[in-house]
Write a structure and sequence with these properties.
two-stranded parallel ribbon, single chain, 269 residues, 24% strand
Length: 269
Amino acid sequence: MAPAKFRGLAARIVMVVAVLATVTLAGPVLADIAGNKVRIAYTEFPPAEYRNEQGEPTGFFVDLTRKVVEEAGYEAEFIYLPVSRVYLYLKSGAVDLFPGLSGVPTLKYEVLESWVNVYPTRLNAWHLEDSEPLTHFDQLEGKTVIVIGGYTYGGLLTWLDNSDRIRLTEAPSSRAALEMLKLRRGDYVLDYRETVEPMLTLPSDSKILGSEIRSRYSAWLYSLASPRASVLREKIDDAYLRLVSRGEAPPVRPFKAGFVIPGFPQAHR
């Protein structure tokens, strides 16, 4: 009987060792299946994020995103997309997150926004110095507005496109839009202050002024189609706070009600 008991005990030990070995060996495989990469969409929105001449992701928001994602223990994989496809990829879960702007109406039920934000951004109506500054959105009626190709302005472009009282013309880039404005091919250019101000370096740019029409905040937007959306948000937000505590990231900015010019379409506030 004793040898039989020992044989049974030995068999159980072998089985346990085999199971442990299987789990140990499967660990890297399971980790690889789960994936340690975070798929990050980015778009053309200099100086925050853009693709440089070498085809690499760059910009201060890209750099900060990479730093925070790596601090959280993940590997950042950046995917360059037009902003309309960014929204599509977020909705489908083809990307995990997007360093973008908060409060995009079309993404209201599609993403989780980070608890922290890094910087505010302001949408301006740029105009020539002899033109009327905007104090009410209705002043765009009967005017030609130059918009930047690929921008959705948080959904505002659709509203403008459907308006029969505002004419739209498209420019391929911010610089091209400013040149069109100087040639009076439009009355106003819709573009972000953070993008345009660094460009105003030519002598002829001194005649260009801006009227703020809306302010918004930056955020990391996590795709709700991804099963790890809430986990990523918590880990990356925590990583950001650790970087802030070490003085390696900008301080957290409190969310405040953003500025909206009177008359701004209610559905896109």
